[in-house]
Amino acid sequence: MTRESSDDRIELVYGSLDMLILRTLLWGPTHGHGIAKTIERMSEEMLKVEHGSLYPALQRLQQEGWIKGEWGVSENNQRAKYYRLTAAGRRQLAAETSRWERFVRAVTSVISPAERGSG
Amino acid sequence: MNKSNHYSLSTYHYLKMSLRRQLAKIGALIWRRRAADDLSEEICAHLALEERENRQLGMPGEEARYAALRRFGNVTQAQERSRDMWKWQWLETLLQDMRYGLRQLRRNPGFTTVAIITLALGIGANTAIFSLIDAVMLRSLPVYDPSRLVVLRWSAHRDRRGPINSSSFGDCDERHGAAIASGCTFPYPLLQAFRSETEVFSGITAFGGPDNLVLGGNGQAMMARGEIVSGDYFSTLGVKAAVGRTIGPADDNPAASPAVVLSYAFWQSAFGGDRLVVGRTILLNSVPFTIAGVAERSFTNLAPGKTQDLWLPIAMELRLNVPWATDLQSLRNWRVVLLGRLAPGISIQRAQAAADVVFRSDVLHGSNPVWQASDNPKIELVPAQQGLTGFRGFFSTPLYVLMFVVGLILLIACANVAGLLLSRAAGRQTEMAVRLAVGAGRRRIVRQLLTESVLLSLAGGALGVLFAYWGVRLIVALVSSSPFGTFPFVVAPDWRVLAFTVSICLLTGIVFGLAPAFRSARLDLTPALKANSPASSLSRRGGLFHLGKSLVVVQVVLSVVVLMGAGLLVRTLRNLRDINPGFDTRNLLLFETDPTLQKYTPSQVQSYYRELQQRLAALPGVISASYSHPALLNGSLTATGFHIEGQPEKKSVPSDTLNIGPGFLSTMRIPLMGGRSFTDEDFEQAAEAAAAEEKAAAAQSKTSHRAAPAQPAVAPPAAALVNQTFARKYFPGQNPLGKQLMEPVPEEGGKASSRKVPRRSWVIVGIIGDTKYENLRREIHPTVFLPISRGGAHFELRTAGNPAALIPSVRHAAEIMNNNLPLFTVQTQTQSIDELLFQERLIARFSTLFGLLALLLACIGLYGVLSYEMARRRREIGIRMALGAEKADVLRMVVGQGIKLALTGVVIGIVGALALTRFLSSLLYGVKPTDPLTFLAISLILIAVALLACYIPARRAAKVDPMVALRYE
Prior knowledge:
- The structure holds 2 protein chains of 2 kinds.
- Chain A is 55% helix and 17% strand.
- By secondary structure, chain A is an alpha+beta fold.
- In chain A, strands 2-5-4 form a 3-stranded antiparallel beta sheet. In chain A, strands 1-3 form a two-stranded parallel sheet.
- In chain A, strand 4 (67-73) and strand 5 (79-85) form a beta hairpin.
- By secondary structure, chain B is an alpha+beta fold.
- In chain B, a hairpin with a 4-residue loop joins strand 3 and strand 4 (181-183).
- Chain B starts with a helix and ends with a helix.
- Chain A binds chain B through residues 1, 31-33, 36-37, 50-53, 55-56, 58-60, 63-65, 74-76, 78-81, 88, 91-92, 95, and chain B through 38-39, 41-43, 45-46, 48-50, 52-53, 70-75, 77-79, 81-86, 89-90, 439, 441, 443-444.
């Protein structure tokens, strides 16, 4: 499949998908499709998530013990796997969020040094 | 529309197909397959949800599906990547953990070496004993499809009625109790009856023996053990020939030309593995046999530990002049074992029911019934693997005891290494705290630590296998003086031993790693991170230290148990060795010979013995020579009942009997307590009586079917000697000299009244000193000594010096007389006694070895925990000394602490030993399972050794320089 990114949506920075998934699950358990939709909705459709790329990430997060998957029934009465955040996942989210914030602050201060002086 | 539908369906389909293919490649572990199915279902659900949403947005059906697929991206790739996650994660974590673990182990070479050697000793000892148990107990029969092979057992409420010749050669357990009798030897004609049951048995065959045969025509005459088998023996077992052919039904015919099959081992040892032996003629008891072939190498034996050199057809046995090979067709000769192969699809129960019908009709209503219906005789079919016990029982007790002991050793080793890990865990607290703080899951840390301990145990296991290899060789070397000669089992590691070793490695790795690992993972972060000095986190490590102490106590407890057992067994061996057997066992050479196998008549036999005796006595270095049947302290025994003159006619008393030749008492140095010994006239009279009986018996067998109800006469009394126990027990307060003994009156109901031979009688002419007979453990029974008059004999030679040095000249002396009469079981009396004490020696020696090992491990544990404790309290000790504590105080404090642990262990250990040693009582002799002396001695030894283990760390503690200790940190 070829990329057809004629739109102005942003591709994800490597590694940030995990954090986004964890953040999404903070609202409560949901399935893969729900996660994809929530990310799109919350980023006001700015972030482009290829749905297929969610699944390797979900497997990885499960292996780390940060999320846990359980079978349930979706809104269209089909079996779907619902993921929920574990305690370790919550901690991981906190750690990654703070790391991300520091990263953003650092990048911002490099890119816009003016703000640094005022801050 | 159709097309697009098609497309998406095939995508879904492809998705599942590729999954399957991939899985097949990987090897398809069940959980992986399920996980993969889960994943594809999950993705399908995702696509369906997206498609539904698209449709709600107004897209037409197929377009909605297209859009969903587009939005999802490459489905196959997503799946493969997801699967990669599992592979990756799983393998990578493992590799990472292993790499990390190896680094940790390398960083602490001292710790690693001690831990690996400790584990290697534990695992090695277990592997060694288990591989013996495997060889003796678990190895499957070396035949085709052994699970379908059954052995027939009879049982009844009482033993067979009437005169029965029953013999078994230890193929399976027999019982001759009052309430129940059972066995697995049958009269040969029953084989024919069972053979008619072709519906349930695809084959049924018989074997018996082995007989001791003189093998000639192959250089120097030698003894060979020949098993008699029916013609379909090899075909029923599915055993093939390595060279030539096996015996077939055509060979099992009295008119056939005699053929014999050699065992592979005998072919190698006696014929040098020469392939040209096929077709050669050998002599068995002077009868020419043609070697038909050699059995395949794996077919060593059926009953465990029972071996034979060759197999010959049952029909040929009559020609061999074997003493008990009388009429095979008689229903009264119970001496062949029957093996059946179940027909395809037939259950063992069904076959049993069919065999039972045949058996009952034969033994209840046949031509020669041996039971009545009320005796309830029946047949049981037992899988041959279990039914043929052979000598398994002889080895199983020592092996089980040793297995238990090595199990304890392994526990001690585990506790020991756990203690070591624990002290190391204390040093790694900061590391763990850092790892936890940066977000490592506790489970991950536990797994990391367990990986380390399993690595340790695997390394220990690898070294342990090496130890086991030596251990097995050591044990087999020791066993080579067993009553069966060399160890009659093949000890070779097979999948069972391998599986056992690998599983105990993993298990020990987890067992000793678990406690320290959880300890570490349960760590409280803040103090561990903040305060890294041993002094300040002292209180928090109390728990660790407690666990360490308990582990030391556990080790002491277990080693006390092992040592107590060992102590009792060693004392048993000592007690047995210290027994005075009533004769001089030193400088005595023994051997057996049996001229009857070469068709000597009874009078020829006796003159042969006399001449051999004179020739041997004339040899330089020989003081005197005699012979008997059987021999003292040789594992064999004959016993019978005697009627004592003057007692009620039907009463008889049990007594051991021993037939002795001239000069027996003086050669054995058994004292004469009263009366006289045998004279030449006594021996002549006995020989004449034997010859007369033989003649009468021969005459009787010719007219055996004619009942002769005449009351047998009493023969003139022959001379007999009795031992002191006989005199004391049966003639209390009387002088037994001159009293008469008689053969007991035959039991009523039997058909023995048809015998024409006069009833034998004896007069007691002398009383001799008590001697041990069958073995050292058996109490001295009343024993009657009679002049030897028939059969094979054991020779006894009293020598001036080392008896073994005389063997060549003794053999030479015998060869001059007849080089077709081999001497066998040539050994000294001391060797013979050692063989009798085989079990005791094996258990005592190895439990002592293991006991010392346990003691050593426990001391290392004690030493380790105290050293760690001293390192931890360095600062505290420094302060104490700065405040005026003397070196002696510190010494006393440290040693006191260690001794407290040791004492706790000893006390609990004594309680444990009290509970456990009673299971040893059947193995003990002359010592109670709760023998206070042993318990006291072991406790003292343990405390003394523990003191030593405490002293080294205590000395180090006392040398602490207060200034250095206080400045430190």
